[in-house]
Amino acid sequence: MPVPVDDLTSDEPFPVKPESAEYEALSFLVIHHEYGFTPQEIAARTGLSETTISNTMAQLVENGLVERAENNYYIDPRQVDELTQRLRSINSAVELFEVAPNDDSYAEEDWKKEVPSIDPDEQTETSDERDSEAVEARAEALIEEVENSYPE
After folding, report:
1. Which residue range forms the structural domain that includes residue 26?
2. Distance (Å, rounded) from C-alpha 76 to C-alpha 67?
3. Residue 41 has pLDDT above 80, yes or no
4. What is the pTM of this model?
5. Which of 51, 122, 127, 139 could link 117 by a cystine bridge, Cβ 3.0 to 4.6 Å?
6. pLDDT digits (tens, 9 = 90+) for 69-96
7. Angstrom distance (rounded) from CA 128 to CA 137
8. What is the reported pLDDT for 15?
9. What's the pLDDT at 120?
């Protein structure tokens, strides 16, 4: 019996965040996917504490990202390529935000004051409108000056 694609896909986000203990442990295991490691070995090679690794590995096993046999944790060989791609995606996103320019409007304090509200009851003056009012005022002053200098 055919199964709808919506039933086969998951909308759950990847449960590993950049720069987290889960990320460090999973990255280590993916890189060394040919071997299984004890929590002590993972802790020694990642620089994380054994307590952190114990909790982290339990979370990774619960999320189905890591397998456990006896006291060794490893990556299922069928998941290596997918996990490698997921970790690369996380790295790419982190790198993208690290090189993002700091001169964009949203990086400045009070940027919201420069954006008009879409609520008609809360319409605010934008910088373009303030600038055009200043230009109009200068133009009117010049016209008045010219009219006063050259009366008819």
Report:
1. 21-98
2. 6
3. yes
4. 0.60
5. 122
6. 999 999 999 999 999 999 998 888 888 7
7. 14
8. 82
9. 66
Domain assignment of residue 34, yes or no: yes
d(CA 137, CA 149): 18
Residues 6+ apart with CB under 8 A from 45: 28, 37
- For residue 90, being part of any structural domain is answered with yes
Return the DSSP state at 151.
Answer: -
List the structure tokens of 63: 């999320």
Closest C-alpha among 76, 93, 86 to residue 29: 76
Cα separation of the two ends of the chain: 93
Report yes or no on 64 lying in a domain. yes
The position carrying tokens 């010049």 is 142
CATH of the domain at 32: 1.10.10.10
Q: Three-state SS across 82-138?
A: HHHHHHHHHHHHHHHHHCCCCCCHHHCCCHHHHCCCCCHHHCCCCHHHHHHHHHHHH
Residue 48 near residue 56 (C-beta atoms within 8 A) = yes
